[in-house]
Amino acid sequence: MVDVAVIEDPAVAEVCMDPMRARLLAELAEPGSATMLAARVGLARQKVNYHLRELERHGLIELVEERKKGNVTERLMRASARSYVISPAVLAAVQPDPARSPDRLSAGWLIAVGARLVREVGALITGATKARKALATFGLDAEVRFANPADRAAFTEELTTTVAALISRYHDENTPGGRDHRILIALHPRPQPAEDGDS
Q1: Model pLDDT, residue 65
Q2: Is there a single domain that holds both residue 39 and residue 102?
Q3: If pLDDT is split at 50, 70 and 90, which confidence band does 89 have?
Q4: Confidence of residue 195 (pLDDT cuts 50, 70, 90)
Q5: How far, rounded to the nearest angstrom, does the alpha carbon of residue 137 sit from its chain's CA centroid?
Q6: pLDDT by residue (tens digit) across 37-57?
Q7: Whole-number Å distance between alpha carbons of 52 and 62
Q8: pTM score, two decimals?
Q9: For residues 172 and 103, what is the distance between their CA atoms, to the nearest angstrom?
Q10: DSSP for 36-87, written as a single string
Q11: Domain that holds residue 6
């Protein structure tokens, strides 16, 4: 079982978007059979089997074990990943593109850059998994609280200058065998938790 699977095929995305199949995927974080799942989700075993066949056919679940019980073979299945993300590549013709609206201060541009991150890293994960190789990545996640908009603007300016200096120190256009890397730094207000009673 991999940690995160990035879904790049529209047919696979369609299969897992079905609410019952999404529920079955969640239930299959631990191995289970159609009989076990039928009791948990309140569906007939035959219907659960139908959904499991579709999930298996699209690589979303995998066989863990087969057990013989009289004339019946019980198949224990498990999700093929702990979590799933649908790549923007699934909607290739309408996926967000940072080049279409290059305003670094717009929320739309930030979403487009984030979508590109999911698409690119998803493709890298797929390639690394097939090649059975590790993928070198790094992520930094932090929170900062600003006293006022002027402080936020000053922080943004200083961050931009600092990162530009760091890039210029390490970037080497002419290194034989070098590999380009993409850097993404995002700043946005943290969503507030929903108040009790809010929908």
Answers
A1: 92
A2: no
A3: confident
A4: low
A5: 15
A6: 999 999 999 999 999 999 999
A7: 10
A8: 0.75
A9: 27
A10: HHHHHHT--HHHHHHHHHHHHHTTSEEEEEEEEETTEEEEEEEESEEEEEE-
A11: 2-84
